[in-house]
Write a structure and sequence with these properties.
With 166 residues, the protein is an all-beta fold. The protein has no helices and 16 strands. The protein is globular and about 45 Å long.
Length: 166
Amino acid sequence: HKGDSGSYYMRTTTEDNTSHVFIGPESKVNRYHLYNSHEVDIKLNADLVWDLDIDAGAADIDLDLTPYIIDKINIDGGATSMVIKVGDRSDQLYIDIETGVSSVVIKVPDEVACEVNTDSFLVSKDLPGFDKVSKRTYVTSNFSSAEKNVTIHFESGISSFRVLRY
């Protein structure tokens, strides 16, 4: 990590055949000092299957997950700006995002089918290449026939939300 935010902890637990890794700041922001800089780079093993659970308040999140096999991504954020790029290594990927005021961009490969479910208030949605199938659900044309799928659930307050194909 880089910045003036203090030190970080890393704790692991193992249950059956699953390991849990917890990473976070040692202390919270005190009421007299706001941090000027706070950046964390995390490297993952590309040969393992990952479930990511990210709890972020006011944050700028940039995740390039293209080299990894991911089953689930769960992000709980406040005032966040995030860009998430997923790859084609997972057969079925579930992404669940809950935010307050945010800007969210998710990039999904063209060959991977995608379904988006939204439960949001005052959200600007940009979903090029998606068909609206109900009030809150959008799918790509290849969703029922593709071997690989991404399912996104997005819940937010005032936000902009984009899913882009690449």
